[in-house]
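Why do we bother with a discrete structure alphabet at all? Because it lets us treat a fold like text: something you can write down, compare, and reason about line by line. To make this less abstract, here is a complete entry for Arginine deiminase. Read it the way you would read a sentence in a foreign language you are learning: slowly, and without expecting to understand everything at once.
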Amino acid sequence: MNSLYVGSEVGQLKQVIVHRPGTELLRLTPETKEALLFDDLLWVRRAQEEHDMFTQALDDAGAEVLHLDALLRETLSEPAAKEYVLDHTFDERVHGPAAVPALRHMAESMSVAELAELVIGGMTKRELLERIDEPRSVVLHSMAADDLVVSALPNHLFARDASCWVYGGVAVSSMNKPARMREAVTYEAIYRWHPRFTSTDFSRWSEGISDGRATVEGGDVLVLGNGAVLVGMSERTTPQGIERLAKRLFAGGQADRVVALRLPVARHFMHLDTVMTMVDEHSFIEYAGLGDVASYTITPRGLSTGDGDPELNIVGHEPGHAHRAIADALGLHGLRILTAEQDVHSAAREQWDDGCNALAVAPGVVIAYDRTPTSNAFLRESGVDVIEVPGGELGRGRGGPRCMSCPTLRDPVA
């Protein structure tokens, strides 16, 4: 087994990447929040306090916690990594050819700490002009003083989505929404150049950054174990993306079956883990409003005679047979589906507040927000140990403990 390996959704969690809220969330305003994919403004100081308690819970559960901003600072000390990040931060198609040379020169003169802050936190025109004289640029001249010259990445809070580890490798995500596309650059640089990752052996299950319409985000990917993977076909993950991911996983020789669930394309069904997460070897939390969804089982048909990519064998299942398809992929006779009994309005509120977005830290032990008491009580009654963390502010970002975590090392299950 490689030293970096995620063998399941519920085995002992040993190492995980998170991102503590920072300057990037201060860039949210009533005018910018929708473009940045937030429904509300977070009180950042309180969100930081809550996130600190979340990371303490991870530490107490035995997981080594890696902070994304620290990893990025350390990565940017490598010249090739710095060049790569600058190439993908300053783009003539965004900033115009007149401004790019001056912007890049400014960034090259920054310390690694300042550059990491710029990459994640963004920079306004006002902040730019505190450092350099305004370049002769139509793009910059037409911007207001507090417009962002470099866009912020507030969704880095949800560390799960821009990359996901599947068995002995990682898929750097081709993100679906423009506001999140540069998040993949951060992870690509870290995995390619940070000493922690260059010193170990792992595979890459995707090309990352931009795969056109073939997008896959980590919140839709569940590592079931024993070579099986569950993927949600959602608002953010497309059928094209699932097929391409499946081919890459099969070519790598560790995964041999992928079950895809066709979710409703809606904001409140953003990713699979907003409606369904795994809590032990055979049990899932599931939102009552998910209903019967169509599903597909994808397996390799063997190697083609062309470029060596596996051909795909795809079997479609009628709505109502998704649980059977997942159980078959796991080699089980059936699943235990945990859905608390409550009225439709209460169920919808708890799902919106991430009641289904629990993070397993060991089989039958999960971290969940305290703002979903009915779901948490039902899990406890079902024999699941629930570690509650505050989510009063973090939960306003529409992402729970699973969303905020990117496991890089997790035990398989028997």
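What the structure line is telling us, in plain words: The chain has a mean pLDDT of 90. The radius of gyration is 21 Å.
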